[in-house]
Specification:
Blueprint: H1 2-35, E1 40-45, H2 52-64, E2 73-78, H3 85-93, E3 101-104, E4 128-132, E5 138-143, E6 159-162, H4 169-181, E7 185-188, H5 194-203, E8 208-213, H6 214-220, H7 222-226, E9 230-236, H8 257-267, E10 275-278, H9 284-298, H10 301-309, E11 317-318, H11 319-329, H12 334-344
Parallel strand pairs: 1-2, 1-3, 6-7, 6-8
Antiparallel strand pairs: 3-10, 4-10, 4-11, 5-8, 5-9
Length: about 350
């Protein structure tokens, strides 16, 4: 009798334990579903309005809310400054760590601390990376009135280009190309956004711009392409854009293995052209929610349709790929990293 009572008691106890576990799981699920209900999620954009980063974030904001339980309002907010490092620093150090704020930064933000960039006071591997809405092949271009028509020409003639801040790719990349290849870019920094530098190029204040992606080029200035208002000198990427196989890669001009490693270091961020990240140390469940919603949004047919209409060429780059690239670049030889740092200090 006692054995039977013990068995019954054990089954009752097991049932009570299972019920309590289910109640906890259900309560947790409800808590997760309720967290975003009635809240506003802010996306901080590290650049001013009008550029491709701004446009990418605004399209994401229009579609991401429906992929978060509770359907919160998602609001884009511009926070330009220091080539997007102002926004990166805010998200890293000051933003609430609850999943209600995240940001988009310049593609070089994940390697700026490695390169010793002033103002990059964060550990890129501690960000809660969500992913990128695209990878991108960028270009260096010269206005049609410039004597510089090809990459070989900029080895011989100075080309004045504009930059959206001293730490933006449009400022750092030309300096790297000067150091690694002997090119003659003269960089004028301080433009609020790429759109302003492009306007300055049109007015004759500048003679070129570097780096400008094929995607924003088609979106922002299709008439310039049609009217052949500029010459493309080379592509900035590890691989050529499939639509432009005849335009050389910057890597094609490497003179030796050291040059090529240096160029790979600064070109690799093209793989995650529009990187989004939340603050470090988010609760695991919030991290999972944001990453799942981000990926669902980038794969959403409505998001894809709008992005293609705006000529953004959406392509999901997962957070794990961004983390992998950052780790790989941090494993490069110290001499290569030191050379890159030195090149970026050149005025």
């Amino acid at each position: 009798m006692r054995a039977g009572q013990t068995a019954v008691q054990m089954r009752i106890a097991a049932g009570l334990f299972s019920a309590s576990m289910l109640l906890c799981l259900s309560s947790n699920a409800f808590a997760q579903a309720d967290f975003y209900a009635g809240k506003t999620v802010s996306i901080y954009i590290g650049f001013g309005p009008g550029g491709a980063y701004d446009l990418s974030a605004r399209v994401l904001a229009r579609h991401m809310g429906k992929h978060l339980a509770g359907t919160p309002q998602v609001v884009p907010k511009n926070m330009p400054g220091a080539g997007s490092l102002r926004a990166a620093s805010y998200i890293y150090s000051l933003a609430p760590k609850d999943g209600t704020e995240f940001g988009i930064f310049g593609r070089t933000a994940p390697i700026d601390p490695l390169l010793g960039t002033e103002g990059a006071k964060y550990d890129p591997l501690k960000f809660t990376w969500l992913g990128s809405t695209s990878n991108e092949v960028s270009t260096c271009v010269a206005w049609h009135t410039s004597p510089v028509k090809t990459a070989d020409d900029v080895m011989k003639n100075e080309l004045t280009v504009g930059a959206a801040g001293v730490t933006s790719p449009s400022a750092t990349l030309p300096k790297i190309f000067n150091a690694a290849l002997g090119m003659k870019f003269k960089v004028i920094s301080g433009y609020p956004a790429s759109a302003n530098a492009l306007t300055a190029m049109e007015s004759g204040e500048l003679a070129g711009f570097c780096s400008w992606g094929w995607v924003p080029m088609n979106s922002m200035r299709p008439d310039w392409i049609r009217d052949k208002k500029f010459n493309v000198l080379f592509q900035i990427a590890l691989r050529k854009h499939p639509d432009h196989p005849d335009v050389p890669l910057i890597l094609d001009f490497a003179r030796n293995d050291d040059d090529r490693q240096l160029l790979e270091l600064v070109v690799a961020p093209q793989q995650f052209a529009r990187p989004f990240a939340a603050p470090p140390d988010l609760p695991p469940e919030r991290t999972a929610q944001l990453r799942t919603a981000f990926e669902a949004t980038v794969n959403d047919p409505a998001f894809i349709e709008e992005s293609l209409r705006l000529k953004l060429e959406p392509e999901l780059v997962r957070y794990s790929e961004i983390e992998g690239i950052i780790k790989r670049l941090n494993s490069f030889p110290p001499a290569v990293i030191a050379r890159a740092r030195e090149a970026m200090q050149v005025k």
